[in-house]
Specification:
about 140 residues; alpha+beta; Thiol Ester Dehydrase, Chain A; six-stranded antiparallel sheet; about 40% strand; hydrolase activity; Thioestr_dom; EC 3.1.2.-; PAAI_dom
Length: about 140
């Protein structure tokens, strides 16, 4: 399968989730802004439903944003009839995000995509361009059948 076809497949899955009200796009507001070969950009608009006890965006929400972007970057590089699952996720939080802050932007890129594992990295910036979090993931690559 070509990269363009793989990106089209992923975009269709994301659209279906939003249309049917399922997934992190619907529940948390994690939205795909760009997809390319080995690259994905997702956005998130902070809101009160994402709050932690300190009334800032919960770290788990930021981790989900990053995991989604990194997984999507990996997905674009996988051959047809191949899926992935996250084995390990490492996140470094740099600064808090207020619930009324502007849109966050997470850019993820693949570092390695092999037959059995894949790795990716991501960076989240706030609307002022300041780094909010960065991290890496390792994915298990799973051919179907």
């Amino acid at each position: 399968m070509s990269v363009a076809k793989r990106i089209e497949e992923l975009q269709a899955l994301l659209t279906k989730g939003l249309t049917e009200g399922i997934g992190v796009g619907h529940s948390l507001g994690v939205l795909c802004a760009e997809l390319g070969e080995g690259r994905a950009v997702y956005t998130l608009k902070p809101n009160p439903s994402q709050a932690n006890a300190m009334l800032t965006v919960h770290g788990g929400v930021l981790s989900t944003l990053m995991d989604t972007a990194m997984g999507s970057a990996v997905f674009t590089r996988l051959p047809d009839a191949t899926l992935y699952t996250t084995l390990e996720l490492k996140v470094n939080f740099i600064r808090g995000v207020a619930l009324d802050d502007g849109e966050l932007r997470c850019e993820a890129t693949t570092e390695h995509v092999g037959r059995r594992t894949a790795t990716a990295q991501a960076r989240v910036h706030n609307s002022a361009g300041k780094l909010v979090a960065h991290g890496t993931c390792t994915c298990l690559v799973q051919p179907l059948g």
